[in-house]
Design brief:
Helices cover 2% and strands 55% of the residues. The protein contains one helix and 16 strands. A six-stranded antiparallel sheet has the order 1-6-2-3-4-5, with no helix packed on it. A five-stranded antiparallel sheet has the order 9-8-7-10-11. A five-stranded antiparallel sheet has the order 14-13-12-15-16, with no helix packed on it.
Length: 186
């Protein structure tokens, strides 16, 4: 299936030269002379490389049709993550490379949306924020409440984030999945 470059939107997945690319940005540009063009910034889904590419006005590009399935994360098995389809109870093993940085936010029992392209898992849709438990951090000292001061905290998934001084081990916090930053206590 193909789509016109005039109809591109952020987040669309394109198939170009045998690779899958996600549209990060696009801009329609009409110079004073000549033909209108569409400037894009694309990210390769396999390698993560970012490419800036210019297309002709109304050029046809391949649109990749992705299938999305909601699946529950069961457990971590070596370099693989085991998910279960909630409707068929079928289990699948997914390599850590296919999930990328999303592995920093996956905890046992959580429900995730996996992206499939031609029966191959190419990624994972994360929510904007996730709740994680602080597994290790320095204890807060009474009276040490400097405004804006931060300390490092290791979360249950191994992710290290900067948190306010009042956060202690065992606390549940919300973390922004786009920036890996502390948002609030849960």
């Amino acid at each position: 299936m193909s789509v016109s470059t005039n109809d591109l939107k952020n987040g669309m997945t394109l198939e170009l030269e045998g690779n899958l690319w996600t549209v990060l940005e696009f801009l329609h540009h009409k110079p004073g002379k000549g033909q209108a063009v569409v400037r894009t910034k694309l990210r390769n889904l396999k390698t993560g490389a970012v490419l800036e590419r210019t297309f002709k006005h109304d050029e046809k590009v391949g649109l990749a049709m992705l299938e999305k399935k909601e699946m529950q994360f069961l457990y971590h098995d070596g370099d693989h993550y085991v998910f279960m389809d909630s409707s068929t109870y079928e289990q699948i093993h997914v390599g850590a490379a296919a999930l990328g940085d999303a592995t920093r936010y996956i905890v046992d029992g959580s429900t995730m949306v996996l992206q499939f392209y031609k029966d191959e898992i190419i990624g994972l849709d994360l929510p904007a924020a996730v709740e994680l438990t602080v597994s290790d951090t320095e204890p807060g000292i009474q009276g040490d409440r400097v405004s804006g001061a931060r300390k490092p905290a290791t979360l249950e998934t191994g992710l290290v984030v900067q948190v306010p001084l009042f956060v202690n081990s065992g606390d549940r916090i919300k973390v922004d999945t786009r920036s890996a930053e502390y948002l609030t206590r849960a």
